[in-house]
From TrEMBL:
Coiled-coil ranges per UniProt: none
Pfam family, one: SpoIIAA-like
Organism: Marinirhabdus gelatinilytica
Top-level taxonomy: Bacteria, Pseudomonadati, Bacteroidota, Flavobacteriia, Flavobacteriales
Protein name per Swiss-Prot or TrEMBL: SpoIIAA-like protein
Stretches that traverse the bilayer: none
Length: 119
């Protein structure tokens, strides 16, 4: 289970902690996000990498598929990480998804929280 929190009824966040972020962990995370979508309807999503050791390719592809399948239920997605490839993924996702996806470094966490809560 991933620690989660809500900024408001429409904005929820998840902290993804250390270890390997594999297909099993991604499915757990997306099940939790789906519960929030069912509860609140269309949401803003804040995801923060808190020292994940490794990402697997199936987990990364699940991430892209989940956002595509739920594009009508997601307003904005804030990705907080110091990994440059995550920032690059956010840039590419913005080209293909009707969701505002923006990446921030860990030092920009407060900016990310402000951005995700903006109407």
């Amino acid at each position: 289970m991933h620690p989660s929190f809500s900024f408001s009824e429409e904005t929820v966040g998840f902290l993804i902690e250390d270890g390997v972020f594999d297909k099993e962990r991604s499915e757990e995370l997306f099940a939790e996000i789906s519960k929030k979508i069912k509860r609140f309807g269309k949401i803003n999503l804040y995801l923060e990498d808190q020292g994940i050791d490794k990402f697997t390719l199936p987990a990364i592809s699940d991430n892209v598929l989940f956002k595509h399948e739920n594009k009508e239920k997601l307003n904005k997605v804030a990705l907080v990480s110091d990994r440059k490839w995550i920032h690059a993924c956010a840039t590419v996702e913005n080209l293909f998804l009707p969701i505002a996806v923006k990446s921030f470094t860990v030092d920009e966490r407060m900016e990310a929280m402000s951005w995700i809560m903006e109407k």
